[in-house]
Amino acid sequence: MAAPRTASAALPVRRNTILLASALAANSAMLQLSAAVASLTLVLVLDVNGLLGLGPAIVLASGALAALPAGRAMDRIGRIPVLAVGFCAGTVGCALAAVGSVRGSAPIVLAGLVAVGASSGTALLARTAAGDMYPPKRRARGIALVLFGAVFGAILGPLVFSPLLAGRAFDGEALAPLWLAAGGFMLVGLALVLAVRPDPRDIAAALARGADDDGAERAPDPPAAPLREILARPGVIPALIAAQASFAVMVGVMTLTGAVVVDHFHHAAHHVFPIIAAHVVGMYALVIVVGDLIDRIGRTRSMAIGLMLMAISNAGLIWLDGIPGMSVSLFGLGLGWNLAYVAATTQLVSLAAPSERGRLVGFSDLTSSFTGAAIALAGGVIYTAGGSVPLAVVAAALAAVPAAWILLLPSSVGVRLVRRFSV
Question: What's the predicted TM-score (pTM) here?
Answer without folding.
Answer: 0.77
